[in-house]
Automatic annotation (TrEMBL):
Matches recorded under InterPro entries: Isoprenoid_synthase_dom_sf, Terpene_cyclase-like_2
Transmembrane segments: none
Protein keywords: Lyase, Magnesium, Metal-binding
PANTHER family referenced in this protein's UniProt entry, alphabetically: BETA-PINACENE SYNTHASE-RELATED (PTHR35201:SF4), TERPENE SYNTHASE (PTHR35201)
Pfam family, one: Terpene_syn_C_2
Protein name: Terpene synthase
UniProt cofactor(s): Mg(2+)
Record family assignment: Belongs to the terpene synthase family.
Source organism phylogeny: Bacteria, Bacillati, Actinomycetota, Actinomycetes, Streptosporangiales
Enzyme class: lyase
EC number: 4.2.3.-
Amino acid sequence: MGPFELPDFYLPYPARLNPHVESARVHTKEWAREMGMLDDPEIWEERRFDGMDYGLLCAYTHPECDAAELDLVTDWYVWVFYFDDHFLETFKRTRDVVGGQAYLDRLDLFMTDDPPEPVNAVERGLKDLWARTVPGMSRLWRERFTRTTHELMQESMWELFHIEDGQVSNPIEYIEERRKVGGAPWSACLVEHAVGVEVPERVVGSRPIRVLTETFADAVHLRNDLFSYQREVEEEGELSNCVLVVERFLGCDTQKAAEITNDLLTSRLHVFEHTTFTELPVLFAEYALPPHEQEAVLRYARGLQDWQSGGHEWHMRSNRYMNGGGRTGFHVSPRHVMGPGGLRNHTHVPHRKVGHLPLPEIFMPFQVRENPHLAEARRATLDYAEAMGFYTMVWDRDSHDGYDLALCAAGIDPDASLEELVLATDWLSWGTYGDDYLPVVFGRSRDFLGAKAFNRRLSEFMPLDLVVTAVAANPVERGLADLWLRTAGPMSPEGRAEFRAGVEAMTASWVWELANHVQNRVPDPVDYVEMRRKTFGSDMTMALARLAPGRSIPSEVWGSRPMTAMVAAANDYCCMLNDLFSYQKEIEYEGELHNMVLVVQTFFDCDLPRAAELVGSLMTARMRQFQKVAELDLPALLDDMDADARLRASVADYVAELGDWMAAILRWHRECRRYDEATLKGSRWVPGPTGLGTAGTRIGTLLGRTAS
């Protein structure tokens, strides 16, 4: 008997079977034997290989490719599953962390033009497949495929570390890391190869393409977690499985955890569909894609869709998984339509009277220090805002004074000079004002196209040569032009480009918020967390952190898993902190949709106290993760790099800054008047989404330091 009954899967696309399935079975079995994958019965033997039926998997997931392409794709999947099982037997069961990492490092050499001589079946298979796959594909596709293959292999170390530590991830960490190191992004690259297209280079990094790929990846991984729970958790001692993650986080039984995991899977599929039908047409128009490029994008989306439906059919038939009693074929129930990610997300009634939200217990291990220039910065930012025209619409001087953004900046960087603190506070004022301005000017009229045009113009006020030729037409443009010249001057051209890209990511996310308002759509929880980081200014934050004078942290540390995990945890903590304090302001007074408490309420269909409790638990989990990374993972990384004292000091300084940042934001929320009901009732304007939470409170101090 299995650990739970398989849930009611949302199956919106019927699977199709490639007619070359039998030839793929015959070919790939011979190829596996030739590579030596059937030599060790402890890993695979012929009967088990036949039962797993990778030919059927690829015939279902790639129903339209020709026989030669199906053979190639099937060999890739045989290789990847063999690699997974070989790593399990060789390194996971023995807990050989050092040997496992050396093994993976050597595999990277087989994705080059001059690979070494292979010494085992995994290396032999990768060398053969690489030579058969990359010719004819573009350099950019090769780079993406190399990266996703590397990350897929590194998944094994991530899982091994969790087993070694006895650690189960928190839900946000799990989704993020599983996507990064799981196999689905790699599968998405192979979809391009199999359907004979490449996503056009100029849109491959756009939000719609990113979301299609990421929702595909999440759905593939969540589905696999449901089918593989018994094998991974009960038989292999695996800890990297979403059902287990939900079980531990919510303290619920396995059946309930499986149903919640399936609800998240359903929600991610709805986001895939929503993106296809509402965001791709806008993308095509915005980039003026010609018909053949539009066709390439649509064939890619169709290929991802085929993979989803075909992958489910294979899971139901393979002897690799627990699969009794589940549905196959086309299946859409009323709950799939009305539940998480479906119509439920479009039924929110704005401006409901919710009253003050009782706050859950907030875990904060850091203390606030104060900057001696606070009083001067308070006066200066009010004068700056008046000069830029902020008080002609949306804000007045009294309300801005009550927001006390200088208090936030002063706690974030208690050691800043007066000049640095004033610049930091001005950036906080601009970001907060801009995020309030957009919904007032464009939100009431649902002028989505006007908002996109407004957002595009902002880049004109951040020229890389520092010569602003555009004429500001509103306070947001005027404020940005002023701040850009005050901030970007000391930067290198590369630094300016990186900084501008971070600002653009933040302002573009404001348009995403408006699009959801046009559709009255409460975001999916994963989409919300990840976009909230952008509205929060995380990309700009990281750019500025790298550019800060005197900071000697190399790119391999900035891009490392510990550093990115720590920064994301800190950002998520503060985003959710803001959502707790701003709940009444946003939901009751602004008719807002972008608040983690509301997102949790909608996904779980639970009452307000339970939603607030869950948000508080997520905050605590992210803070605990921040502490673990800072105290254990980053020092271990630096030890592995044999880092010198200067690098260690620079990393320690950055970790301390993040602690100051989180403590200061909590203090600011408790002491400012932005969220007081009296302030809200007396507001001259009905503001938009809360600016401090979305404009990024980390921005200010780093901008100040960059300018010094």
